[in-house]
Write a structure and sequence with these properties.
5 helices, 0% strand, mainly alpha, 154 residues
């Protein structure tokens, strides 16, 4: 009976080991995929913002690669002073004011590039807004407009 108990204990330990290993592997894989997804989204937007800044002949388009500086750059491209970025230091009301300024800045940027300003409102649509905003930024950044298309938008 003691031998049978030792066998069962050994099997319990092996089962626990494999279940623990599977859980850790799953957790690590989930974290890794999340980090890769976030990095891919960040790189996409950095390329898009850099392209938009270059279209508007902004001399420091490389700021698109620096996390908070890219927002300051977008504010400047939209006609605001870069220092409005400090609204982020004020919880809730400052964040809300900053988001409103960023939407207005995007509206102005899109119109400067002859696209509908309302594209900027896509970022506030619940659930799908981030995806729509990403598509809108990509269109503004990389779509080539012909002279006929530019005349139609006036």
């Amino acid at each position: 009976m003691a031998i049978e108990q030792q066998i069962f204990d050994s099997m319990d330990m092996l089962t626990s080991f494999f279940l623990g290993s599977a859980f850790i592997t799953l957790l690590f894989s989930t974290v890794l995929l999340t980090v890769l997804f976030i990095a891919a989204v960040y790189i996409y937007f950095a390329f898009a913002y850099k392209s938009i800044a270059e279209k508007l002949k902004y001399k420091k388009s490389w700021l698109a690669w620096i996390p908070v500086a890219q927002w300051a750059m977008l504010l400047q491209l939209g006609g605001f002073h870069w220092a409005w970025i400090f609204l982020l230091l004020v919880p809730i009301l400052g964040w809300l004011a900053f988001i409103i300024l960023l939407i207005i800045a995007h509206w102005k940027i899109f119109e400067k590039l002859k696209y509908p300003g309302w594209f900027s409102l896509s970022m506030i649509i619940p659930r799908i807004g981030f995806i729509l905003y990403g598509i809108a930024v990509g269109i503004v950044a990389w779509q080539k407009k012909s002279a006929a298309q530019s005349k139609k938008s006036h």
